Amino acid sequence: MNAHNIQSPTLAVEIPGRSRSEGAADQTLAMAAQLGFFPNDGLKVHINEKQIEAGSQIELILNDNVVATHTVEAGQVNSPIGLSLSADHLVTGIHKLKYQVKQIDQLPFQGSEFAVLFVKAKPLSHLGFTADSNSSLLVNIEVQLQSQPLGKAISTGSEVLHQVESSGGLVFSPDYRHLHFSLNREILTLDMEQQTVITKYQVWGYPVAGGTSPDGRYVYASAPSNTHTWVIDTLAQTITKGYELGSEDASNIAVSADGRLLYVASNEYGTPNNSFLNIIDSATQSLVKKIEIGRVAVSLALSPDNSHVYVCCFEAQEGRAGVYAIALQTDRVTRIPVELYPLGLAFDPAKRLLYVSHTLGNTITVIDTTNNAIRGSFTVSQSPTHLTLSNDGKWLYVLRNATGLIDVFDTQHQTLTRTIDTGKQSLRDITTRKDNGDIWAAYYVQKE
What we know:
Blueprint: E1 6-7, E2 11-14, H1 16-21, H2 27-34, E3 38-39, E4 43-47, E5 57-62, E6 65-71, E7 81-85, E8 93-102, E9 109-110, E10 113-123, E11 137-147, E12 154-155, E13 160-165, E14 168-172, E15 178-183, E16 186-191, E17 196-202, E18 208-212, E19 218-222, E20 228-233, E21 238-244, E22 248-255, E23 261-268, E24 274-281, E25 286-295, E26 297-302, E27 308-313, E28 322-327, E29 333-336, E30 342-348, E31 353-358, E32 363-368, E33 373-379, E34 384-389, E35 395-400, E36 405-410, E37 415-421, E38 427-432, E39 439-443
Parallel strand pairs: 13-39
Antiparallel strand pairs: 1-2, 2-4, 3-11, 4-7, 5-6, 5-8, 8-9, 8-10, 10-11, 12-13, 14-15, 15-16, 16-17, 18-19, 19-20, 20-21, 22-23, 23-24, 24-25, 26-27, 27-28, 28-29, 30-31, 31-32, 32-33, 34-35, 35-36, 36-37, 38-39
């Protein structure tokens, strides 16, 4: 490969026609090259995907159509694989070039990066050269490499796990056509069918998407360093500030089933750092009600029947740590005295149970939501964080803090059945698609 490659760790695109124009004896080619146009010799694509087994098939995909395939031989494992894109595909326009790998007895996965091709194809006569050279078509190609937001899908036989690079807050649109998630100081929208990010919204601070309106038009988010909520209009593709909390930061947010109310946990700045549940009218972004709870609220979840909001509070002094259950009809607040530092929340609607992780411990507490009493607890690996349940309630997925490991527990026997190694370094969130049961996990890559 030469200096005309556009490359990343896993993907490189070579433009052979550009190399052919360098020092060409043909003065016409040399002059066209000065205008940025070169012979249309197609493209050479080099894929350096590690840990691919022999017999795997690599497909080169242009604009969602497979244009080249290669079966990996034993001697090519862990080596760059070359494929060619023929010249007839390089027509004027913007094209997306990506690849996917099909391994034996596993789900296909797409490469972590793709190329956007900006192509202009012109006959020599259109570049000001003599008419007798009209038959020669030259191309100007600009290549931009971009990262795919999705990691490799993992199939264990019991579940399908998808991964997306995100700092947290995974929220599906009601029709599951889009996934909204946070990455550093942005909220992104992923087209689930195309598996590409279609919009990005910049936010001051580090936002967390919390929910959508029933029709999917509005996305609501919070950011712990912000004193207000955020409202995204996906139709107008705008983001605006929502309700202003004054001297408190917006820790977490949830949306009622009918979309009329937002539930926002907030923390006072400074001492004593009291926490509140703010109930906000989503249409007017005005305060309906404010309820004091514990201190240092870190997570929040709305019960499946919309009767209670549960808020985890860290504050260990004065006996105020715990999970706070707020009855939305009566405003009654019940502190459930679980172990210190509760964080992850996962509901089992059928059994009326709530699972709570303790991030600085090694237990999961089980709460009976019919009376908000502790049903029991069980031991897990050190420092569990976020949780999700399979749709049938059989499996509880538990993220291990600052690792790429997911422990899967049998909820009936409360025993560890398997551990999924995602190959990532830091998992930040996990959720379950309600329509098909697939598991989605957020992983974060620390940028230097």
